[in-house]
Description:
Order of helices and strands: HHEHEHHEHEEH
CATH superfamily: Glutaredoxin
Structural class: alpha/beta
Distance between the termini: 56 Å
Strand content: 5-15%
Shape: globular
Number of domains: 1
Mean pLDDT: 78
Largest sheet: 5 strands, mixed
Helix content: 40-55%
Strand order of the largest sheet: 1-3-2-4-5
Amino acid sequence: MRNRTVWHVVVSCAICVCLLGCHSRTSPKPVQSKTPASASATTSAPGTGPEKWQHHTQGLPFVVGYDKGLQTAQPQGKPAMMFVTTTWCGWCTRLASENFNDPEVKQLLGNFVCVIVDGDTEREAKTRLGATQGYPHVVFVTCRGERLGECLGYKPVSAFKPIVENALGRARRA
């Protein structure tokens, strides 16, 4: 009976980790970027550079930093996609590699200011976005920072694309 209980606990923990994404540094190995480092993040926060985030940006024009992202979005009147991530999160790089390289998702994301929020260093922004349950955590907000939608954990293109479409639709109605 004891072995059965232990087995149930182990399986339950494994399911939680799979559903919620990365919670420790024991995540899968990063997926190699299909784009050159020079095509990654366009703006760097102090102590960060485009090369640090190349596996997360996949050639999309990203701004690094929550405040910088909103400062970029406001004058353009565009909503923002806040990608709360870390450099060590394998599920984050997998989400980026699969979703940000999909032509339809990439086209949809062109309607947003794409922002990297470093979960290791931007703790206040992470809390403000409600992204405290693990990585990856994508939060879509208006140019004023009002929530439009979110994606918690890794999602394949078939599940991620409708989330982006829904957030874009809400942004257009806002």
